[in-house]
User: What shape does this take?
Amino acid sequence: MDKKISKNENREKLTVLIDKDVKKDMKKEIVDLDCSMGEFIEKLFDIYKSRK
Assistant: This one.
């Protein structure tokens, strides 16, 4: 079986959307929505983690 992502990890990924610096990046990336929403959130999460 594939490892399931915990609810807390999903919540942490969604908090990325609140981060002000990431919102600036989000505005730049929002025009490129060829990826799925999951991939979009993953990308934002990676940006968020790289700034910590």
